[in-house]
Amino acid sequence: MFERPVGTGERAVLVHIEFPQANSNEQSEAQSEFYDLAMSAGADPLSFIKGKRHRPEPKYFVGTGKAEEIKELVQTSQADLVLVNHQLSPAQERNLEALLQCRVLDRTGLILDIFAQRARSHEGKLQVELAQLRHLSTRLVRGWTHLERQKGGIGLRGPGETQLETDRRLLGMRIKQLNKRLDKVRKQREQSRRSRQRAELPTVSLVGYTNAGKSTLFNQLTKSSVYVADQLFATLDPTLRRVELPKNQAIVLADTVGFISDLPHDLVEAFHATLLETREADLLLHVIDAHTENRAKHIAEVNSVLEQVDALDTPQLLVYNKVDLLDGQQPRVERDDSGKVLRVWLSALDNQGLELLLQAIAEIFSQDRVHKWLKIPPHAGQWRSILFELVDILEEQYNDSGDWLIYVETTKRQFDKLLKQTGFSELLIDD
Predict the structure, then answer these.
(1) Dihedral over Cα of 359, 360, 362, 367: its sign
(2) What is the mean pLDDT of the segment spanning 143-163?
(3) Which residues contact 326 (CB under 8 A, 6 or more apart)?
(4) Tens of pLDDT along 371-430?
(5) Over the stretch 331-343, which tens digit does the pLDDT of each residue have?
(6) What is the pTM of this model?
(7) How many CA atoms lie within 13 A of 70 on its CB side?
């Protein structure tokens, strides 16, 4: 939709600018991650241009001199596109394309392209298209200046609207349509969650930085064959499987999309339906690459996205993966002073420590069960129906007043949620 230079190749020049706010470790990882993003998108990197600035330059982001350097390199190497490891404004993107005479893609556009390639399910494709259109809508004014004119010609004269206004209106209509479809998906997911709750199967979601090994761990625990690759965003569409735990317990395990630093807000918004699996989960397995030096930063980035989808309060178990790459480290379970499980160290690739993880999950859910008596008055039969849908009923009696006395068992999180949403606190009977 942009008036862009013609060209369909993937020969790319990569551009990264260092700013004084980040330390050398973070800069090194940012460059490595950017290179992996380019490779994951299918690009053929020709060269990597780096520079330093105190702040972005308004016109080109990279500065006039650096822009000329990139232009010369694009011409000599016959590159098809330039990838910039930063978020460009619509004006900066257009100015660079006008100067370089080739396509320019910023970090957000690159991630969106990878997501478009990875989406397989109907839901995933809808979410990616929504994110792309939201991103594109911010670039209409600057990107489509060649369309800023009234329609003309025989039969087309009159009040009318500019082509830009027409396209903006059509874009808005498509976004509205996608939101309606995703609302339907959310309702379907909600029905699935209720079915799992009725079956008393706790849901455990795998979350973590991209390429931390979530899908490998998922496959080992579920004996599945979810697509695994040593690349960013290998998994996009969520997958759910039943997993048997020790002590005759079972869970539903969900593999979700990986997170990354500066994950585009449009993507978080568009994938809200998918990420609800994390908010509604009973436990999050936060998978961490134990081998990377920046694991603390990765943990913070994941928690930042979880906060955006209101999932930060969901209980977490930290799973340090790739222990096989660390010298002198063995699979183990770490506990706090009271004996509560805090972390599990394992290697999903080598199938080491998985039994420890399953035991830790079973232990957490064993400790998390609550047993309570509730008194439901005769006129509140709908509350009794809700209980039968969402919790395990162990015993039911009647008193002389005709009240139902119901003994329930459920997870502490689910019980607290019931109290908050339905006001069952008024019905509690002291044990």
Answers:
(1) positive
(2) 48
(3) 290, 291
(4) 888 888 888 777 788 777 777 788 888 888 888 888 887 777 677 767 766 666 556 665
(5) 999 999 988 899 9
(6) 0.68
(7) 32
Q: Tell me phi and psi for residue 141, to 5 degrees.
A: -65, -50
Q: Rounded to the nearest 10 degrees, how much is the dihedral formed by the CA atoms of 326, 329, 331, 333?
A: -120
113: its two tokens: 């392209």
Whose CA is closest to 222, among 257, 253, 258, 256? 253
Pairing of strands 404-411, 392-398: antiparallel
Distance CA 286, CA 316 (A): 6
Query: What is the distance in angstroms between the CA of the first residue and the CA of the last residue of the chain?
Result: 66
- The two tokens of residue 139 are 């670039």
Contacts of 331 (CB under 8 A, 6+ apart): 323, 344, 345, 346, 347, 352, 353, 356
The model's pLDDT over 253-280, given as tens digits with 9 standing for 90+, comes to 888 777 777 776 666 766 665 676 677 7
Sign of the alpha-carbon torsion through 181, 185, 188, 194: negative
Residue 277's identity, in one-letter code, is E
pLDDT in tens, 166-182: 777 788 888 888 888 87
Three-state SS string over the chain comes to CCCCCCCCCCEEEEEEEECCCCCHHHHHHHHHHHHHHHHHCCCEEEEEEEEECCCCECCCECCHHHHHHHHHHHHHHCCCEEEECCCCCHHHHHHHHHHHCCEEECHHHHHHHHHHHHCCCHHHHHHHHHHHHHHHHCCHHHHCHHHCCECCCCCCCCCCCEHHHHHHHHHHHHHHHHHHHHHHHHHHHHHHHHHHHHCCCCEEEEEEECCCCHHHHHHHHHCCCCCCCCCCCCCCCCEEEEEEECCCEEEEEEECCCECCCCCHHHHHHCHHHHHHHHCCCEEEEEEECCCCCHHHHHHHHHHHHHHCCCCCCCEEEEEECHHHCCCCCCEEEECCCCCEEEEECECCCCECHHHHHHHHHHHHHHCEEEEEEEECCCCHHHHHHHHHHCEEEEEEECCCCCEEEEEEEEHHHHHHHHHHHCHHHHEECC
- Cα distance between residue 346 and residue 332, in whole Å: 7
d(CA 51, CA 406): 68
pLDDT of residue 277: 67
